[in-house]
Amino acid sequence: ATAWAQAQCPVPIFGTTHADHLTTDIPCAPPMDDKMIKGDYEHETGFQIIDHFNTLKLSYKEVEMVLVGNHAPFTWGKTAAKAVYNSAVLESVAQMALLTRQINPMAPRLKQALIQKHFERKHGPDSSRHALRRRASPVRPAQLRMPASQWRAARDLDPAAHGPVRLGREC
Among 20, 33, 74, 164, which lies 20 to 30 A Cα-Cα from 48? Predict the structure, then answer.
């Protein structure tokens, strides 16, 4: 994800794994100006994120991740475990987007109907009726690919929130 921040690019929503978590591209705030950098840097970074969310009319409650241009990714959540989980999601989605662009530089953004379908399945008003089926699923969430250490860190903080994950290649 840091590479996307350094490139000053939002992470495009190409696939359903991304849509399982967000309905938008992962935003990339512009680089901070010199005044902000010379000031209370950490505090100003927060304002840079807030200002960018306001410009895009995004809610920090719905989009729990952002990139800051020339800097790095930032994530948060209602709990520390959720923030770590969001970091793992961000890294995985950023990697998939990079590979998608490498395979097909003209890859289209995911269709809005698929974005809504996947997001609503997990977060919509009827999502609770799928909770038991999701809890029983051997692969959670959406077969994200990442180093086992990242999954263990997220899972160990909140084991009830994350089931076993299949790592490795899938065609």
Answer: 20
Q: What pLDDT does residue 123 have?
A: 82
Whose tokens are 């997220």? That residue is: 154
Angle at 86 between CA 112 and CA 45, to 5 degrees: 100
Q: What is the mean pLDDT of each run of 10 residues along the chain (171 residues)?
A: 96 95 96 94 95 96 96 95 95 97 95 91 71 45 50 48 38 20
Closest CA to 164 of 123, 128, 135, 121: 135
- Using a 10 angstrom Cβ sphere, with 0-12 exposed, 13-18 middle and 19 or more buried, the burial of residue 61 is exposed
Compute the distance between CA of residue 58 and CA of residue 25 in angstroms, rounded to an integer.
11
Q: List Cβ<8 Å contacts ≥24 apart for 49-54.
A: 49/74, 52/27, 53/27
Q: pTM score > 0.85 for this model?
A: no
Count Cβ atoms within 10 A of the Cβ of residue 90 and give its class: 0-12 exposed, 13-18 middle, 19 or more buried.
Answer: buried
